[in-house]
Design brief:
The structure holds two protein chains of two kinds. By secondary structure, chain A is of the alpha/beta class. Chain A is 31% helix and 16% strand. In chain A, helix 1 crosses helix 6 and helix 9 packs parallel to helix 10. Chain B has 22 helices and 19 strands. In chain B, helix 13 packs parallel to helix 15 and helix 17 packs across helix 19. Classes of the chains: A alpha/beta, B alpha/beta.
Chain lengths: 432, 527
């Protein structure tokens, strides 16, 4: 989306050869088109490799039923071909006129990933990546999905503006709006591997790591500090996740993980510091995760503890909040919210706890749900009583209150039950 | 560092509230219910689901019963127990009225709970079981203007209610009437894909005794207004009138085993050890060749289907036609069969009403229809005309022509008249029509044909009895089903003993078409 000009001189980009090598993909390979290869020397999952995020590359990957791995060559290493097939990462000129600079310049000013792919123009470059184990394609990822099933996309690029389409599954970059930046090739390869492991196919349930009871980790008082990552680790399979938009907004963690063997997107409030007040950047983070959930038909699980919003009165931040709330409401994914602590106002909607058409909302006994922060002239005990989760459960607005240690088991059970937007498809005729 | 004290207190309060919900209206109320031959909501749910599979939602909901001049009373679970569980390993949702609290009437919290379960079932394509005691709103919570904002049973609170009909043909709603179902409960039952009523302890009507007394000054008990007997024989509104609650709930389980969870799935195929190619030589003996001799078509059906198991619907209403679910080689089928034992199997107005509803439901849920024909045609005459025969025949016509589900027909004996087309004829698109050698097809029986065509001669006594018999014999020969097979107006003439194997093969053949039609919604009307 950004049309920012490329930096005059940045750090050297990913070396595509080194990244592919670190991923265990054979380099260089003879062949052409959009190569299909397996990670880790042929033992890992199959991926379709492209040099740009183009519709054609997506279509081919979807047809094969593999994730799409886009390794965008940095400026100077040659542009992609129009169909998104990899250019030569060895630095050889990609254009028939032998002038790599022309392609680079065009690529640098491209405003979207797709057009970045289209500017190279050259079609005669000898492709360096090729198919190995190509016939092992479709079923090899452990997921029997058909051609219409959206598959995860991983983009590794040193020039984020070249792949600014916000819908890719994981964007590993050198800098800028990437999910993770500043990684060297082995670290990036490790992240990509973990991401694919978490997001492709269903797996047997892997228990969360044994740990202390969550009521030892989280104090009962709703304003007391605790370690949200310890809570998350107790909820997701193996305590493992890959963070999207890492570091973008401290008040909310957005991750890809598995619960009960099933890939899910998780948002987790981080109330430490400002009480989890949601900022416009946090809203953007949540929307980014919802993109991922919606594209892949993944359930959204939200662990909510937010004291409200931290937006100025300015129109831009109000708009960001309003848009994120509408997005949370309209997202056509399975939505399960666990209210860990506070769920206040529109921030609670953005995080799926109130008014976001969640399939089920499960509060912990310490949860407090309210439209506004408690007014200063109200007795805190009375404010707590009014906002208490068990009051909502008693009146039938919420259907249960759960013990924190039940969280994971209940989520697994409900992800199984609430298959609607995942398997049943449309939401048949029920006004909401 | 953790505030254990706060946790312990809160968790203990939660456990206490759950326990209160489990006690329902208390031991005395439970005992009163039992004394009336009834079960509690939890006992009913225990019978409905596979052991240990029930998962409750809204256990903490607690209502308040307010009666002027009396102290307020807590209503644990607010009159409704709800959640989900497994029936033969498949997920289904349940909303069960609690007869121990204000006779099964709900408060607003109970309504919200029930609405949420209903939405979850509809959105996710699960069957919804309604175990109805009253399902009414608590009178006092509807007095005054609160009534204006009350929801009819769909999404509560934030949005307009979803009318029950919106979900017909999507995921099945099953109603077990176990108390006096009035208002919403009776509407839902009329709309349900399957309904059952516990005879003696339950009743269903549009309006109850107080309203009847006030409205037209007539004293009537709920049983007078809508007993099991009334609905089994006169209205035909209830699919299965059960001798008791346990049998009613067992029938729900039997029904669900035949049915898909939603119209987006095919019904489960359950191989059950009855060989597809099992032959039934006894069939030829069951059916007399003389068209006027009655026999029991129910026995024919049970001989053909897996293990003789037929879930017959409305068996005492329009007994001249049999409808019900069965399996053939594990495939769920909907059987529609004329019953010559009653009224000679004639198709009258009630038979059409019974067949149309059944065919529409099978069509909505991708359940192939198997027709067994032995019929003299539609009933005629002033009585049936006044009963509205024309409208019902046209409804059947529209249903038959509109059906997209596979239809397979076995012509057992006679197939006379237009009704033959509409109940599984090739004319309305039956996939496969076979006849037994005993089969006869014609616009009309020979006697009627002669009487119509040679009306004048008959009137003037110009036709000798001998000549008439000759003519009948010649018509009878012309009507033999084999002629239709010779020029492929029907698919085949088969040995009755091989009917089962033949049907099994055809059902396997049409499987692909059923798959292709999934995800097209076909709703049904409620008549």
């Amino acid at each position: 989306m950004s049309t920012a000009a490329p930096p005059a001189a940045g750090p050297p980009g990913f070396d595509p050869v080194r990244l592919l090598d670190a991923l265990g993909l054979p380099v260089p390979l003879p062949g052409g088109g959009l190569p299909l290869a397996r990670l880790d020397g042929g033992t890992g999952p199959a991926v379709t490799v492209a040099a740009a995020l183009t519709p054609a590359a997506r279509a081919v990957a979807a047809q094969r039923g593999t994730p799409l791995l886009v390794v965008v060559p940095p400026p100077g290493l040659g542009p992609a071909r129009p169909d998104g097939a990899p250019a030569r990462p060895d630095g050889a000129p990609a254009r028939p006129d032998g002038n790599p600079a022309s392609g680079v310049a065009a690529s640098g000013v491209a405003s979207t990933g797709d057009s970045a792919a289209a500017v190279g123009g050259g079609a005669s470059a000898a492709p360096i990546l090729a198919v190995r184990g190509a016939t092992a394609g479709t079923g090899s990822t452990g997921n029997g999905g058909g051609v219409n099933k959206p598959w995860p996309v991983v983009v590794a690029a040193s020039s984020p503006w070249a792949v600014a389409g916000a819908d890719c599954g994981l964007l590993v970059g050198e800098q800028g709006p990437a999910d993770r930046s500043g990684l060297d090739e082995p670290a990036a390869a490790d992240l990509i591997r973990r991401f694919l492991d978490l997001s492709v196919g269903e797996r047997p349930v892997e228990p969360a790591p044994a740990g202390p009871s969550l009521i030892e980790i989280v104090p009962f008082a709703v304003d007391a500090a605790y370690d949200p990552e310890a809570v998350l680790a107790a909820v997701v399979d193996g305590g493992r996740w890959v963070e999207l938009a890492a570091g973008a907004a401290p008040e909310v963690l957005t991750v890809v993980a598995r619960i009960g063997g099933r890939p899910v997107g998780v948002t987790m409030s981080r109330p430490a510091g400002n009480g989890g007040l949601l900022t416009p950047a946090g809203c953007a983070r949540v929307e980014r995760l919802l993109d991922w959930c919606e594209r892949g038909g993944r359930p959204w699980v939200s662990l909510v503890d937010t004291a409200g919003v931290e937006t100025g009165a300015d129109a831009i931040s109000q708009e960001a909040l309003r848009r994120a709330a509408a997005r949370a409401r309209s997202a056509e994914v399975t939505k399960l919210a666990v209210v860990v602590g506070r769920a206040v106002g529109l921030a609670a909607t953005v995080l799926g706890a109130v008014g976001a058409r969640a399939d089920l909302v499960l509060p912990w006994p310490r949860a407090r749900l309210s439209l506004t922060p408690p007014p200063p002239d109200l007795d805190p005990a009375e404010a707590g009583r009014l906002a208490a989760a068990d009051r909502a459960a008693t009146e039938g607005d919420l259907l249960d209150v759960i013990h924190p240690d039940e969280t994971r088991a209940r989520l697994i059970e409900l992800l199984d039950l609430v298959r609607g937007r995942r398997e049943y498809g449309e939401r048949p005729g029920v006004a909401q | 560092m953790a505030d254990r004290g706060g946790w312990d207190e809160a968790l203990a309060a939660l456990a206490a509230r759950r326990e209160a919900g489990r006690q329902l209206g208390g031991p005395a109320a439970v005992e009163r219910l039992h004394a009336r031959g009834k079960l509690t909501a939890r006992e009913r749910i225990g019978l409905l689901f596979d052991p240990g599979s029930f998962r409750e939602l809204g256990e903490l909901v607690t209502g308040v019963v307010e009666v002027p001049g009396r102290p307020d009373r807590e209503a644990p679970a607010d009159g409704v127990v709800a959640g989900w569980g497994q029936v033969e390993g498949r997920t289904a949702m349940v909303v069960a009225d609690d007869g121990t609290i204000t006779a099964g009437a709900r408060g607003p919290g109970g309504n919200r709970k029930a609405a949420r379960i209903r939405d979850l079932a509809a959105q996710n394509g699960y069957p919804l079981e309604l175990l109805l005691e009253s399902s009414a709103n608590r009178f006092q919570s509807m007095m005054g203007a609160q009534f204006a904002g009350a929801s009819g049973g769909g999404s509560a609170g934030t949005s307009p209610p979803a009318a029950p009909w919106q979900s017909t043909g999507r995921s099945p709603v099953v109603c077990a009437v176990l108390g006096t179902a009035l208002g919403a409960a009776s509407f839902q039952t009329m709309d349900a894909e399957f309904s059952t009523l516990a005879d003696g302890t339950a009743a269903m009507a549009l309006a109850g005794p107080p309203v009847v007394q006030g409205g037209i000054g007539v004293e009537a008990t709920p049983q007078d207004l809508g007993s099991g007997e009334v609905h089994a024989t006169i209205t035909g509104f209830v699919d299965h009138v059960a001798p008791d609650e346990a049998d009613a709930i067992a029938s729900v389980r039997r029904f669900l085993a035949f049915f898909p969870s939603s119209s987006w799935e095919l019904p489960p195929r359950v191989p059950n050890g009855d060989p597809a190619d099992r032959t039934s030589p006894e069939l030829a003996d069951l059916v007399p060749l003389d068209h006027r001799k009655p026999y029991d078509m129910g026995r024919v059906v049970r001989t053909i289907v897996d293990h003789g198991e037929l879930l017959e619907l409305r068996p005492r209403y329009a007994r001249n036609i049999i409808v019900g679910y069965a399996r053939i080689d594990g495939w769920t089928v909907g059987i529609i069969a004329n019953q010559p034992r009653h009224l000679g199997g004639i198709v009258d107005v009630k038979a059409v009403i019974k067949a149309v509803r059944f065919a529409q439901i099978c069509n909505a849920y991708n359940i192939p229809l198997v027709f067994l024909q032995d019929q003299p045609g539609f009933i005629v005459g002033p009585d049936s005309e006044r009963e509205g025969a024309l409208r019902q025949v046209v409804r059947l016509m529209n249903t038959a022509y509109g059906a997209t589900v596979p239809m397979v027909t076995v012509l057992v004996r006679k197939a006379y008249g237009f009704s033959t087309w509409l109940l599984g004829g090739r004319a309305v698109g039956a996939d496969h029509v076979v006849a037994w050698p005993s089969g006869a097809i014609s616009l009309a029986a020979p006697e009627i044909g002669v009487a119509t065509l040679l009306r004048n001669e008959l009137a003037q006594g110009e036709l000798s009895e001998e000549r008439q018999l000759e003519l009948y014999a010649s018509y009878r020969k012309m009507s033999q089903a084999r002629w239709a097979a010779y020029d492929f107006r029907i698919d085949d003439v088969i040995d009755p003993a091989h009917t089962r194997g033949h049907l099994a093969a055809v059902l396997a053949m049409v499987e692909g078409r059923r798959r292709a039609q999934l995800r097209t919604r076909r709703s049904f009307d409620t008549a």
